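agent> Task received from the user: take the single chain below, predict its 3D structure, and emit structure tokens. No templates, no multimer pairing.
agent> Plan: (1) validate residues, (2) run structure prediction, (3) serialize to tokens, (4) report one or two observations.
agent> Step 1 OK, no nonstandard residues flagged.
tool_call: predict_structure(input=
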Amino acid sequence: MTVLNQALTRLFDLAMGPLDRLPPMTGLVLLSLLTAAAVLLAFKWTSDQVALVAAKRAMQAALLEMRLFNDDLAALLRAQGEVLRHTLSYLRLSLAPTLWLIVPMLALLLHTEFYFGYMGLATGEPALVRVRLAADAGTKAKALLPASLEAPEAVGVETPGVSLPSEREIVWRIRPRAAGSYELRVHVGGTVLSKTLLVSDSVSRRSPVRPDTGFLNQLRYPSEPPLPSDSGLAAITIGYPERDFSVVGWDIGWSGAYLALTLALALVLRRPFGVVM
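)
tool_result: status=success, residues=277
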């Protein structure tokens, strides 16, 4: 999993690089446009377009029949059966492009979360760095203490590590003094572990969590290599604020905005692409 994450991280960093100088919403619109084009091409190349057209027309005809003969119970039931049959046929015909798209779309959503889902830390604003001990650390917990945090000169460490036994955490407060990309170093149990830090609001990859070696944790947080399995730690986290994408006062999140834009652009572009969806 680690090797796959590293390969995908390099690929997405290369692809997303041109967006780092653009406002986040502009970058999201461009990403949605490219995704919509890819979805349309997948439907065009992997689905039976003629059969899709026929299924849609048959559904429309059956719906029209329901409106025309709504006072004839037998005709109405027959038309409803036709709508169901052609709907199932349409879904079956749409299955092939969906299967082609599901894995790339999942990878895209998992990785772009860390470009658009979080805001960068701001200079002069405090943030928390947390080290969480593994649930099975047990007797090793005392050996992991005391822990210390080492940061570059441009990042001030304002507090010593505060131990929270009930949360199995050690917490520091930091305050960036200048924009940039940095590496923090956590000294714990005789081991030195690194954690990336980004002080910028550009569309760039941020890693709020460096996880342990668990498969699901690596899948959810792919931006950094997992912590060594013998480190006794479950995660190192940085409190990046989530980015707000609001529509009429309702925060739909970056993924909601991305999926809505992709769907809208796909509907607008389907005729120029000559695609039936």
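agent> Step 4: summary for the user.
The longest strand covers residues 180-188.
agent> Done.
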